[in-house]
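User: Predict the complex.
Assistant: Input components as received:
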Amino acid sequence: MIDNHILGPVFIHLFTAILQLIAWRKTVTQRVISGIGSFLGVLVSIRLLDKVVDNGILTLNASNWEAPFGIVFVADLLSSTLVLITSLAGLAVSLFSSTGINRQRMLYGYFPIFHFLVMGLNGAFLTGDIFNLYVWFEVIIISSFVLMTLGGRKQQLEGAVKYMALNILASTFFLTGIGILYGITGSLNMADLSQKIKLVNNQFLIGITSTFFLIGFGIKSAVFPLYYWLPSSYHTPPSAVAATFGGLLTKVGIYAMLRVFSLIFIPDEFTRNLLMVLAVLTIITGSLGALIKLNIRRLFSYLIVCHIGFMIGGIGMFTKVALMGTIFYLFHDILVKTNMFLIAGVIRQMRGTMEMKYLGGIYGQYPKISLLIALVLFSLVGIPPLSGFWPKIFLFKESLNLEHYAFVAALVLGSFVTLFAIARMWSEVFWKDVPAGVDAEDKFAPMPLARKILLILPIGLLAAITIFIGLNAEVVVQLVDKISDQLVDTSSYVEAVLGKQN
Amino acid sequence: MKSPILQSATKYLLPILLLFSFFLLLRGHYYPGGGFVGGLVASIAFVLHSFANGPDETMKILKRKPLSLIPTGLSISALSITLPLLFGYPPMTGLWFEEPIPFIGMIGSSLFFDLGVYLVVVGVVLTILFTISLNNLEEKN
Amino acid sequence: MELLLIILIGLLYGAGVYMILRRSMVKLLLGIMFLGTGANILIFLLGGITKGKPPVIDESLKMFQDNYADPIPQALILTAIVISFALTAFAIVLLKRVYALVDSDDLDDLNTPEEEDI
């Protein structure tokens, strides 16, 4: 069904960013606009998801060009749910940034760039054209470069060089893949591609093309041999920025993989095995890194890598149940990882450092906030009934079913290491007394109440959503079940974009 | 680099290049040209001027910071993209006035989109160049 | 013409990879630019080179419809050029800042040991 309003979330963030650019250097106005814009974004995304649930897949032909010729935007269940979750995470980060980002960074345009980033994410989720996906990816990475370098401390710039080089390389791989794909099929519309790719005689060439996409998205989503840029850059920017990156950017890579591998390159035996091996290795390296890191944000960076492995494994199995696990985990991961980095930001406000050696005594000083944080940590570890528990069941079930025992072992390892790392962090940061001789500089306690609320409210918001997902798992499982159906059987997607075939 | 030849040449080149950039902007819908190319030509005109006379002189001609062109251009573009929604068309559909306007020709929403792109490109290129060249001057002093 | 472009693409990709593997930041940037140009020419080549044919053909001229130049690759390349323009501009400013701060062009000097973290 054609609906001209599915780009609402994109336009809201576009106009928010423009208004903030007009209010250049007026930081208070920018903060207010950012909050309002993000809130409107959430409302519009809820309406979009509601429409998609009621009416099925919605499409929009940009400039009124018919489907395979013009750029088409498609809102199916997967994209509209991701848009909603992105908007929620965006709202949380936007509220947090209004006090968590220092004024100097705001003066150099933190807020407009942040909204361009969220706009890019929404666009990437909604587009149905592979080249347009590339363009949105570039919008995302250019904004992320600016966010990464704003402020310009030495470490930040060091991280930014690595981040920039690897991400541009990933885009080049992606662009090369698109070029070859266009040469083979003569189309860029993903629904059209899924039809035309079956008619190509030389399937070997298709396989090679798919590796270009695999490498491109692999670098973006930090899969095993290509993840090194992530832990060496994500600990450098301010926490609100790291939250956006850790929660959302790597997940766009996973989303693109889901899209491309379900619509265009249906994974064959070789690709599936390759993905499984990559998943296992990603989990192992991620956990090994998480074991030795004693800086909170470095620890979280490795946990991101580790948990990316879970999702890749689900794509590698490519059955309905496994995809359900991947998608559910994707939703959970966006919310929880964003929240983790926000928590790291609050801890930094409380103690002025992120090094576990110098941290301690937070539970004694702030018991209520610590309990809230504990809830998020439990969810990350995957304790029922919180959101992290359910997707793992699907993944375990399906990998046992398909006898991928190495992946089962990796899942167990990954979960245990997450538990261990989080338990250690809890005892070091919250339970242990402040180490002797450390002069903790507490910026949090003297803050006025309003600022405290602005720092804690986003964490509470995201935690509430996590609990909501955990307690209403049945609703979410039904949703994920439908999404997974749409991914395995793409005929409804193709039909929505191209109209009835014959 | 202060060369009298370049300085007097830019005096005449600047308006001609700007005029040419408008020409590219206006013909861009059906022929080679468009907002991006036009914007680049316009910014090259200013870059040439700043080569000859130094960035400070160029800032004086511009009167305003080039950064302020970015939100202006973006809002023009964004409005022209979303305008068709009010008439029940998908975003980015070209809306055209029925009668051609003398000298310019047919005017439609895509021209305004291009105009926005033009302003954004001029703003971005000049901002980047001034950032780089001002840093250089600071380092020399 | 095709063969020439294929060799050129190979050279650009090869040079790009070689430059990216160097330790100097400027060469890293040059390598990235080579790769981008290579990708653009690749799209141009794979879109099919047609000389002297119109891209848009009137509906009534049915007999020429198989015989046209594809305009899409050029649109794609133009978009990619605009994007790489923005990326390169940003990268130059970034590398300049890094050079001013670290006072070195060597990527190996970019590693602050973990102990100095905050």
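Chain B has a mean pLDDT of 84.
Let me know if you want any component modeled separately.
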